[in-house]
Amino acid sequence: MHIFANTSLSKNATNSKQNTFTIYNLPFTTFRLSFTIYHLQFVIALLLGGLNTALAQTHEQPTDRGYIVKVGDKVKNNFTITYPDGTSTTLKKLKGKVVMLQFTASWCGVCRAEMPHIETDIWQAYKDKGLVLIGVDYKEDAQTTTKFAKTMNITYPLALDLDAAIFKTFAREDSGVTRNVLINRKGKIVFLTRLYDTTEFANLVAAIDKQFK
Fold it and tell me: Which CATH superfamily is domain 80-211 in?
């Protein structure tokens, strides 16, 4: 240990230590303050970002999924279903039957992915039990609809919906196709699907099966 004999030197040394402390303490305090402000800004941004994301997701994927009906509702409109060959039926005429309406379109990739499963897992499995399955082609003419059915190699019928009148009975016009509506013998909706989700599709098949128990 070194002892300074000169008092002024000792004082200078003390001042030097004080100065040293001051020089290092100020940046440290500033760093701590900056660190705190940074984290506060980060937390606020995170919260706002999460809120914005949640709002965006709510906007893109509303809880009703674009439907204006829900399970348990009775279908009120007695719409006409017209096929490309000119024949037609009405929902009223189908009362007392289990009816599935599949909303689709030739330009819809998800629809194309789902339709082979509808053909094999639903139509082929339940047509002889009395299921009425009708594909409803969204805003496409008879020629396009006929070609679409042939391309997809389906045997269940595709009907026309040129002005989206049938679609708008169940969903908002701009809310997207790839939908299935299952209606029981009393005319009530018992199941609704949106897009092609394998779990939801399996639940749809189970709901159809239940109608024939």
Answer: Glutaredoxin (3.40.30.10)
